[in-house]
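Incident log, support desk, overnight shift.

02:14 A customer reports that sequence design results differ from what the structure should imply. Their input is reproduced verbatim below. On-call engineer (initials T.W.) acknowledged and began investigating.
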């Protein structure tokens, strides 16, 4: 993560008011810097990548985030009554930074906190999606293309049809 780091997130949510206030100012600066970065690269993004950059997944529950094989990664989330599926065509393996050892937040029911989209410099048609998760992990997904799908979740009480 370049802008929304685990350290900044932890300080932003500190019980110490002075620490939280200082981090709040840093958070606003990081937010402005990321928006400026995204504005600068938006014209270089193909439509599906631009759609990913504009997608707000904050607080979506992570249901799965494992690579399907070395060239594909699938991330499935639950958000506001629907499932969001992201399928990435990878140019390199997904990298996972573990949570800091002193991560103060729950590691149960992992949620998507913040993400950053970037262009891999020096490599046309290659992108990086960095994601900070509520369990303190940070993912870096190096991809060439992405497919996004939003699927309505079944209504409670409505049977889900199972394949035979």
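02:41 Re-run completed on a clean worker. Output:
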């Amino acid at each position: 993560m370049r802008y929304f780091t685990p350290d900044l997130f932890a300080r932003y949510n500190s019980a110490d008011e002075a620490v939280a206030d200082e981090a709040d100012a840093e958070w606003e600066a990081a937010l402005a810097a990321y928006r400026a970065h995204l504005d600068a690269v938006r014209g270089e993004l193909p439509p599906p990548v631009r759609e990913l950059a504009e997608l707000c997944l904050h607080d979506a529950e992570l249901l799965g985030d494992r690579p399907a094989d070395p060239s594909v990664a699938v991330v499935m989330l639950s958000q506001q009554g629907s499932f969001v599926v992201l399928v990435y065509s990878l140019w390199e393996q997904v990298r996972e930074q573990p949570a800091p050892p002193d991560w103060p937040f729950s590691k149960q029911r992992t949620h998507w906190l913040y993400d950053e989209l970037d262009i891999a410099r020096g490599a046309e048609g290659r992108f990086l999606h960095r994601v900070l998760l509520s369990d303190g992990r940070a993912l870096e997904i190096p991809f060439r293309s992405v497919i996004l799908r939003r699927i309505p979740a079944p209504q409670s009480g409505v049977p889900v049809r199972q394949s035979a």
